[in-house]
Predict the 3D structure of the following.
Amino acid sequence: MNKQYSKETICVQSGWNPKNGEPRVLPIYQSTTFKYETSEQMAKLFDLEENGYFYTRLQNPTNDAVAAKITELEGGVAGMLTSSGQAASFYAIFNICGAGDHFVSASTIYGGTYNLFAVTMKKLGIEVTFVNQDAGEEEIAKAFRPNTKALFAEIIANPGLSVLDIEKFAGVAHSHGVPLIVDNTFPTPINCRPFEWGADIVIHSTTKYMDGHATAVGGAIIDSGNFDWERYPDKFLGLTTPDESYHGLTYTKSFGKGAYITKATAQLMRDLGAIQSPQNAFLLNVGLETLHLRVQRHCENAQKMAEYLQDDERVAWINYSGLKSDKYHALAQKYLPDGSCGVLTFGLKGGRDFAIRFMDNLQLVAIVTHVADARSCVLHPASHTHRQLSEEQLLSAGVQPDLIRFSVGIENVNDLIADVKQALERAE
Ligand code: PLP
């Protein structure tokens, strides 16, 4: 968009700006290929000398329009869509880390990301050190090594629900000459814009609130353009020295603030191919058009549900940063003043069997391996999403064995509370 509109307007209208007579709605460019008049034109595209589309594995106009909308929402300079949130996390790190490198990550992250970092990246020769994100700066700094290339964390951790002290993390990352990469899936840019607090790169599982209707798996990477790669010329060689697979082009020299995303597109998408399908990008865009309305309602409903659960004597504990009693309430007030997200976690006094009876008795709220869509759902991470983790790893990921994760949807909250009430009563 030409001028800086507010986030609600960006959600509805940004990304696709139709010209006279063009479709008002973002079209699905359902084509793998794009036609050119001369072979010279095509050659220039391959050499990255000219901008344009030639093969959807690298770029597609539907995807680019949606990536542009998310980039604008985050206040970044460049962005790309990926086939999933997992692909986004992988690309974000792999774009600047190779065999022999190391990065630091908060331990309270999504189980799939934890496994990607601890197991799969290790097989590629990339090592990770997990840190307690609530530790002091000096303690976190101890994890850094001369070959450390990035610091990673989730703004609101899934399912630990810890709120990240973004300024603290950005300070530690920058004092070690590395970018802070954050996963902003749970707050979305409606509730938090991490670049304003010093984060350098944001990733998303767009599968969650952005799509919002559980229709399309997807991811996104957005660059703030603020990290100065050339200030550390020996560290980020992939960005600051010639890429032989592109005729000796140097990304920082040729693309300036667009270097990181251009490299991720030209190299990683070309070689690994985790592109989002244009169909999914179209669905994601429809979701984004109401993101601002839905996120607000998710937060209102979750707040009311958290207050209800807090007062029920069968509930042993509850995590929701909107509650004054919550450990992360102060951080949430600073970084998430308009609300955090629709996800809360709690444990029941009756133990694991009681929790399972409770979940089985829910009628409106379904047992689903998902969070952050319009329909309310619950999950027991220790038995489901995080079942590959040991008890020790579970605790370090912020997952108590009795934890029930509740993704509060945008139904009428009184209906949801009535469902929870009857399920608790029938579980007894
Ligand atoms: N990041 C967070 C915070 C998540 O919750 C998830 C999935 O649940 C992911 C990343 C991975 O995203 P995807 O399932 O789209 O690959």
Notes: The two ends are 56 Å apart (CA to CA). The pocket of pyridoxal-5'-phosphate is lined by residues 84-86, 110, 112-113, 154, 158, 183, 185, 205, 207, 217, 219 (CB under 6 Å). Residues 361 and 423 are 5 Å apart (CA to CA). The chain is about 40% helix and 15% strand.
